[in-house]
Amino acid sequence: MLHSSRTMVVGARMYARLYTLVTVLILLAPVGFAVDVTYFKTVDLTLIPSAVKNGAVCLDGSPPAYHIDRGVGDGAHKWLVHIEGGGWCDTTENCLNRTKNIFGLGSSKIMQAKNFTGLLADNQQLNPDFYNWNRVFVRYCDGASFTGNSFDPVNQLHYKGAKVFSAIVKDLLGKGMSNATNALITGCSAGGLSAILNCDKFRSFLPTHTNVKCASDAGYFLHVKDVFGEYNYANFYDRIVKLHGSTKNLPRACTATMRPRSLCFYPQYVVPHIETPLFLINSAYDAYQIGFILAPSINNLPQSWERCKNDTTTCSQDQVEILKGFRSEFLGALPKLGNGTFRGMFISSCLAHCQSQLQLNWDSDPGFRLKDKTMAEALGNWTNGRSSVQIIDDNDVPKICLTTPL
Ligand SMILES: *[C@@H]1O[C@H](CO)[C@@H](O)[C@H](O)[C@H]1NC(C)=O
Ligand SMILES: *[C@@H]1O[C@H](CO)[C@@H](O)[C@H](O)[C@H]1NC(C)=O
Ligand SMILES: *[C@@H]1O[C@H](CO)[C@@H](O)[C@H](O)[C@H]1NC(C)=O
Ligand SMILES: *[C@@H]1O[C@H](CO)[C@@H](O)[C@H](O)[C@H]1NC(C)=O
Ligand SMILES: *[C@@H]1O[C@H](CO)[C@@H](O)[C@H](O)[C@H]1NC(C)=O
Ligand SMILES: *[C@@H]1O[C@H](CO)[C@@H](O)[C@H](O)[C@H]1NC(C)=O
User: Fold this and answer.
1) Using an 8 Å Cβ cutoff, are 132 and 71 in contact?
2) Which of 110, 188, 282, 342 could make an S-S bridge to 85, C-beta 3.0–4.6 Å?
3) Its Enzyme Commission number (predicted)?
4) pTM, entire model
């Protein structure tokens, strides 16, 4: 356990490299900053070896894992379960490679401790609504947002995401979550998608008296044509769903009618069927989605798009119109406005991806506020029933939101 209590001075600089997952690089610099945004707490890994006999294993057959920091005071019976992100694997080769991923995205043998920050921080000033809850960081180790149930004996690849999800939730129930008054499942990116796809499943594991909600950060991937006029990303999702045997574990109300069924990997087709309250944190100009869904670097993507993706100030007027079109489609694919208790939203125009774990985006940098509200306040209010929240940035051009001085 490590507490950084130094009042550090922080600067930051945005790299507009939209094809990379990480868009924010924090540099230490001699400038005063009121809140210690560099604070973190290192939390050890907890393995679930008993899950292995039930076939609930990571891609390489190793046990599933999570990190837990126990709740205290009036948070002792409240649970925040946050699922890690990290893309997906759609071919045998990519999944084999994933078992060796240095962050442990396919194997708990490689996983290390985790620094808790942002919505996972245990500091009241930095995380006023969740700091004293039981906070769990679920390690993503299956490569299909915890939906798979298949096995490749030749390559010894275990596509068991759906079982891993159940095993982790059951383990947490035994550690006190079965007595939860409140339970919120969240996640970022592929983990945010997992929180959506597994939202009602999570609900079903908890007692009826528990107030259960779901929230997705940067997990609302859009089914949309790319700049080639094709659905290349939908083909990628189709390969993931087939390889992992995920169809049976996608929400049934969607797969009953949707064709192809793999489209039920998309939030916009699943969310209308979800019965549990859901909150969406996302940018309508999600940096990952622009780089990988709208303008993927395949089939000789024009250099002008590579430049525009990397630095939106270089985009031509035509490209700006295409970006705006993406935003319009994104907003159009969101749940209908009106019931902000059932479907909360915090939708920015920031060139960002996965924000809730970054202290600056979560509540510290004013540039990430919408209508002068922080993400922390929006999700905190909504989760605790203080207000219904549907906030969408009116700004219709992509923007760099980091304003923390260099
Ligand atoms: C394998 O994974 C590494 C990162 O862990 C990546 O850089 C590399 O491109 C991957 N190779 C293939 C064939 O997917
Ligand atoms: C936690 O953050 C500190 C400071 O940035 C870093 O030195 C350390 O390696 C991090 N630990 C983990 C487990 O990521
Ligand atoms: C739930 O609460 C009851 C009553 O306080 C207690 O006996 C039980 O052990 C708790 N269950 C867990 C899993 O902590
Ligand atoms: C990306 O943009 C940065 C400035 O934002 C620039 O320094 C860099 O050269 C660009 N890279 C490419 C590959 O265009
Ligand atoms: C919001 O939706 C929920 C679930 O459908 C419903 O129970 C509730 O009455 C709705 N509230 C409003 C104000 O429409
Ligand atoms: C959160 O709730 C407080 C107190 O009810 C209220 O003043 C504030 O405006 C709310 N913020 C949001 C984003 O709804």
Assistant:
1) yes
2) 188
3) 3.1.1.-
4) 0.92
